[in-house]
Specification:
elongated
Length: 142
C-alpha cells in the first residue's frame, strides 16, 4: 500500500462515520421527512436511530452537514412555502408546519428564504417571480 493510499484510509477512518452507523441515521432522517410537521423532537429522532441523542446529533451532523434541528427546521420551512404558495395565511402555515409561534416562524422563514412569509405568499399568490428566481435572494424593504 502506498503512502497516499494509507493516508487516505486513515483520514477516512478518522472523519467519516462507519457504514454500520449510517443506516440508523438515514432511518431517522426519513422519519424527520415523514413527520416534520408533527411535534417531533431530538429524543424521538434519536430513539428512531436507537442512539443517545448526543451521539445521534454528532453522527447526523457528520453525515448531513447540519444538526437534526436545523434539518427539521429546513423541512418545515419547505412545507410552509408550499402552504403559503397555495394561499394559506401566515398563521395557518406556521401552526400547520409544527412551529409554536408566529414571530419565531417569521424570523426563521426570513432567515432561510430572504423574505417575510407574507411577502412570499403575496408573490406566490399573485404569480410573481418565485424567491429562488430572484437575483441575490434578498427582498429590499421587506
Amino acid at each position: 500500500m502506498s503512502y497516499y493510499s494509507s493516508e487516505m484510509a486513515r483520514i477516512m477512518a478518522e472523519h467519516l462515520p462507519k457504514p454500520e452507523t449510517i443506516q440508523p441515521v438515514i432511518r431517522a432522517r426519513r422519519m424527520i421527512e415523514k413527520h416534520a410537521c408533527e411535534g417531533i423532537d431530538l429524543d424521538m429522532m434519536a430513539s428512531e436511530a436507537c442512539l443517545s441523542k448526543f451521539h445521534f446529533s454528532r453522527l447526523f451532523r457528520r453525515c448531513y452537514g447540519c444538526t437534526p434541528h436545523q434539518y427539521l427546521t429546513e423541512r418545515r420551512i419547505e412545507e410552509a412555502k408550499g402552504l403559503l404558495a397555495r394561499g394559506a395565511s401566515v398563521e395557518e402555515a406556521c401552526f400547520g408546519t409544527g412551529f409554536a409561534s408566529v414571530p419565531s416562524f417569521a424570523l426563521l422563514f426570513r432567515r432561510q428564504t430572504g423574505m417575510a412569509p407574507r411577502v412570499f405568499r403575496a408573490r406566490a399568490v399573485q404569480g410573481g417571480r418565485a424567491w429562488s428566481e430572484r437575483p441575490g435572494g434578498r427582498e429590499r424593504g421587506a
